[in-house]
Automatic annotation (TrEMBL):
Assigned GO CC terms: plasma membrane
Gene3D superfamilies reported for this sequence: Phosphatidic acid phosphatase type 2/haloperoxidase (1.20.144.10)
GO molecular function: undecaprenyl-diphosphatase activity
CDD domains: PAP2_like
Membrane-traversing stretches: 12-32, 52-71, 163-181, 186-206, 212-228
Protein name as annotated: undecaprenyl-diphosphate phosphatase
Organism: Vibrio marinisediminis
Catalysed reaction equations from the record: di-trans,octa-cis-undecaprenyl diphosphate + H2O = di-trans,octa-cis-undecaprenyl phosphate + phosphate + H(+)
Phosphatidic acid phosphatase type 2/haloperoxidase domain sequence ranges: 81-229
Domain of life: Bacteria
SUPFAM superfamilies, per the entry: Acid phosphatase/Vanadium-dependent haloperoxidase
């Protein structure tokens, strides 16, 4: 176990730094007014950031990061091991996110705005409405809320804790960021960290999450990443099978 943690020390270090950078957002969130008008530049920037870690763009982000890793010196066995490890942690992250949301049933921050505008009796009531009713309620508040925010409210009417976007960003920081540090690609690691912070803040700005959602997501990823096996043994077996098949083919 000690050797496994030692191999992941850079990824875990980056997650600690990510936590330390997210913590001050607890103070910044008080200055975010969801009912205030916003510029198109600001709205577009946070939308691009949040989409890069969401269902519409996470594959593009993964592709870009995967291409960046091609510049790193790794053997085919190491590459296969990392691919398996990434696939497992992504599967765990996305599956657990869905389960935790249903377990905690924490209303999203924007439902508090709906409640303050007297469109629902309380935030929890929003989740008792049908999809059509939820859309209708959000449409009514759109007269007072920027479309940059309400378009995301329309698309994500599930619960708040944890933040799936932040889970994905934290996985990228731990996995790819750790690799970049291992190979002394400090600029790539720093760029990745700035992106992850941007994604996390975009979730607050849009009214989709609270700071505790972000912090809990990073802590969850840190735990899973720390406990995840290296996958070297499995990659060796798969590589051996592939080599046997290759020989049989020829």
């Amino acid at each position: 176990m000690k050797s496994v943690l030692q191999a992941k020390r850079n990824g875990l270090l980056l997650l600690v730094i990510l936590l330390l950078l997210i913590a001050p957002m607890t103070l910044l969130v008080n200055h975010i007014e969801l009912l205030s008008p916003e510029s198109d530049f600001e709205g577009a920037t946070f939308t691009i950031l949040t989409n890069s870690a969401g269902s519409g763009g996470f594959l593009v982000t993964l592709a870009v990061l995967a291409i960046a890793t091609l510049t790193l010196k790794m053997t085919p066995k190491q590459q296969l091991s990392k691919v398996i490890q990434l696939g497992v942690i992504l599967l765990i992250g996305f599956t657990a996110k869905t389960g935790l949301k249903h377990l905690t049933e924490s209303p999203r921050p924007y439902t508090e705005v709906l409640s303050h505008q007297l469109l629902v009796p309380n935030p929890a009531h929003f989740y008792q409405l049908s999809a059509v009713q939820q859309e209708s309620v959000i449409n009514k508040v759109s007269e007072n809320v920027s479309h940059w925010r309400t378009q995301h409210w329309m698309g994500e009417t599930d619960y708040s804790f944890p933040s799936g976007h932040t889970i994905f960003a934290a996985i990228c920081v731990a996995f790819f960021g750790g690799l970049f540090l291992d190979h002394k690609r400090y600029a790539l690691a720093a760029t990745l960290m700035v992106w992850a912070i941007g994604v996390a803040y975009s979730r607050l700005w849009l009214g989709m999450h609270r700071p505790i959602d972000l912090i809990g997501s990073v802590l969850f990823v840190a735990l899973v990443y720390a406990l995840l096996p290296s996958m070297d043994g499995l990659s060796g077996k798969i590589g051996h099978v592939l080599n046997l098949n290759k020989r049989c083919f020829y």
